[in-house]
# Entry
Amino acid sequence: MTTSILPAPERRVPGLRLLRQLALDTQFILLGFPLGLVTLVVCLTGFAVGLGTAVIWVGVPLLIGTIMLARGFATVERARIAPVIGRRLPHPYYKRAGAGASFARRTLTPLTDGQSWLDLLHGVLRFIPSTIAFSFAVTWWAGALGGLTFPLWDWSIPRGPDNTDLPELLGMGDAWSTRVAFYMAAGFFFLGTLYPVIRGAALLEGLFARGLLSGVNELREQVAEAEAARDTAQAQKAAAVSAEATALRRLERDIHDGPQQRLVRLAMDLGRAEQQFATDPDAARATVAEALAQTRETLDELRALSRGIAPPILVDRGLKAALTALAGRSTVPVDLDAEPMSRLDPAVESTAYFVVAEALTNVAKHSHASEVHVSVRRSPTGLMITVADDGVGGASLAKGHGLAGLADRVQAAGGVMNVDSPATSGTTLTVALPL
# Structure
């Protein structure tokens, strides 16, 4: 993201901003011409002499010195072009020898650095765009100032049989008013096109410098960002797979330990009742009544499991209502601080609900807390969730602990999770989810 380097008042006044930019571009071009001439002479002379005498090793130090001078000129140029292109160029990475490298290796390392050679190439070639930009700048400024002030200095032009004005050559006559009108019209033309011409000339010189002095570094940064994004995506994918596997194992365990056992017992009770109806109807009715109780308990457990997967209240009424219902069912008193908010992305709401539900379950099972505080706040950058209890602490994100699967779930959603749980001082779980 590009950050504006203009002061706030100038960003609010377009005319003032244009005048300031015109002054900066003009200064950049006028100063760039002599700098380009000096850089060309130094870099080209040092490179030619150093390369020509490199066979007898005399030119190697000269080449190294020339490259270091080119680096210095490049550093100055990166600072100069910032106001022209509207962004600051970062200092590029130059190759360096290792800490334990010999003196010869440290000395010769600049000769193996690609960016250093690009700096030298810029020092040799920069005179071309600098000359073009300087020519346009001098021509347009001279045309604008000279044409608009023509009535003030017309008297100083000698006139005679051998001196013919341009208006006269064009058949416009030699009257003073005709000359003034012609030259002032030319002045207004140059003034009207001054800003785009100067801006274009400055950008020609500035973008040429940026391509050689920062292009490789920017490409390297883009590659690094792409690799970081790829690594993040792979980590999120792995976390999503791990979270899904953990959730499936947990669901399988809960079903096996709860509803499945009750359904097995229900089938046995109904089979026993069927046998008892012929011999002992009262016992059969008691067995059926017990089976009905088992059915109700099984339904309650299935509802609890479904609430952990996708609670209907979350889908119908949103995150705050779902968290309120969740806090009401908690066995540990919950102080819920959740401000009213518009509906979020379903994946974000589901992850946030899962985080709070899993955290409250862990508090009830392991913390021995007397109270837990839950805070859910929406910020411009994401959704912040905090769950803090006054229990025994000692929670960990290490594999094998209950919070490891929760961390995978948060990472799969692109968020981050932090656990602060010193022994005997309670646990604070903080989660940030991107919106």
Summary: The chain is about 70% helix and 10% strand. The mean pLDDT is 79. Residues 1-213 form one domain.
